[in-house]
Amino acid sequence: MTPFTSLAGRVAPLMLANVDTDVIIRIERLTSGDQAQLGQWAFESLRYDEAGLEKPEFPLNQPGWRGAPILVAGANFGCGSSREGAVTAIAGLGVRCVIAESFGDIFYANCLQNGLLPIRLDPADIARVAAVAEAHGEVSVDLERQTLALPDGQTLSFSIAAIRKEGLLKGLDDIGLSFSEMDAIRAWQAEDRGARPWIWDLPPGLTAVAEPSNLETRR
Amino acid sequence: MAPESLAPRTLIDKIWDRHTIRDLGDGWALLHIDRHLLHDLSGPPALAEVARRGMALANPELTFATPDHAVSSAPGRTAETYPLGGRLFKALKSQADQQGVRFFDLGRKGQGIVHVMAPELGLALPGTTLICGDSHTCTNGGVGALAFGVGTSESSQALATQTLRLARPRTMQITLNGRLGLGVTAKDIALHLLSVLGTTAGVGHAVEYDGPVVRSLPVEARLTLCNLSVELGARSGIIAPDDTTFEYLRGRPYAPQGEAFDAAVADWRTLVSDPGAAFDKAFEIDVSVIAPTITWGTSPDQGIVVTGRVPDPAEIEDDEVRASAEAALAYMGLSPGQPLAGEPVDWVFIGSCANSRLSDLRDAASVARGRSVPEGVIAWVVPGSRDVAEAAKAEGLDKIFIAAGFEWREPGCSMCVAANGEQAPPGARIVSTSNRNFVGRQGPGARTHLASPAMAAAAAVSGRITDVRTLAR
Fold it and tell me: Which of chain B's residues have a Cβ under 8 Å away from the Cβ of A197?
């Protein structure tokens, strides 16, 4: 994962509440071919008309906001489906930071898994950032300091879990971190087998399971 | 194991504490994942990522896969009926086979929508932590599992390490009192809760549903209630297991059997919130006020009683709420303040992880029996799993639906999420037993009204949004 330390750039406004992940990326874009091209389909129904032409009123289609690395959005951004393609699509637009009053829980977690920084601010601070966006201004995000600097010199603070901040700063994802604890995980499992055998000793059930072909790489 | 705390704890905290392998500080934990469900959309990329890193699954025996999202539901379907779905099916099946993951294939027992097959197979058990790359994983809370949706990256982590690094959720208690009226189901309760609490009340929270009304619900209804927890903004919803739960689980294929079952039940009886346990938020709802409910707008919280009128934006003071209502009414092709009952419908979809179980089909069939879907209305019944379909056929429900002019289709997610191309055309008005009425969800320009199976059947046989109570025999 690419580390995230700081980011300075233009902010594009998408001040609609409850933008759900179906709006962020349609399901058929996730089933058909090229996942590397998802950015093209981000916010499709808001961005293109029925003929497939860009809608001029959509902020990200406008010259001042096209390609902006920072998005300020309405409350409950990314609610709904867990599709991680929603994050991929937004990142495909060049966005590396989304600022909103609130996010869908799964979307928020998915952002952090992909090096995209989600920032929660209270409504008053959201209004300040939105005003900067409307004026085509730039902001400066500093993850280490947990600050957002506005063009007029104001600095806003944001919260982020220490564990997630560290992961972003170092570009570490959870698989490596957790895999380094496999011994402790296996020890916990061994004890659990005694306490809750029904979790481990499954009846034959319905299907025979083939032995995995990669036992030697399993810890 | 994490030491047991002496202070009274909620059920959610008990399960969390028990599964904490290591406290990571700041409320974060390295949490064990007991059960991992994979489906055809999110399963293949998660499995591929593990393989790409040269890693193996930590516990393939705790991982279960079935195709549901991208397979066709057409009668006689195969994996190839929807070709894009066929690619995903092959990827899931081949990787599952290679990794020693149980795969519940099309045409075989156990195949179905993940959150329908998991409880009915006894894969979801009380006190388990259960994840899936699908936001409605919370459904499994209906049997007392702490179950939540994850993205593909988190799914990969759990495949490789059987753990996730997560923050303990805040807790929300919803206590249901009173008595359910005629025609009022778990779906109506869920839609009512959404209309009262909104879609952000549960953000950052896990919900526990309790109260005498919950205790009176059969397990399938509890699954429906927990299903819509994510629409409240909560990642998980749970109902403490009780004798109703234990009787439901007894004898299921992957539940413990015989003496092992009795031993498990003894443990499961401890899975209740302690008296005096503190929740971060608590609500009490009197269900006696609830009537058959249907959504009018483009968010699941925009529900009203079926006998009511949609909002008139002119009467809404808050600018943002008014603009949102205006946009929703425009999209849905409804006039301010109009009644919903009597509005003609084009499609009816009875299916989805919210409502596609045997009791749902029975409810819908009792409305459909002896009646006819009018010309020009398309009505689909998509059973939630092969087991549901077989049980329904054994009772003759399929014949009731077919005689009434419904299409009886094959198990899968189908039109709820339209990942298999099964969409309604632009402008079509659909009454759907699913859980999301978002703009474009069931097809670009498709207009979704969420309701219970009986309400959907009532709409199907009337050709209009209908108060199901007027059809009572």
Answer: 256, 260, 263
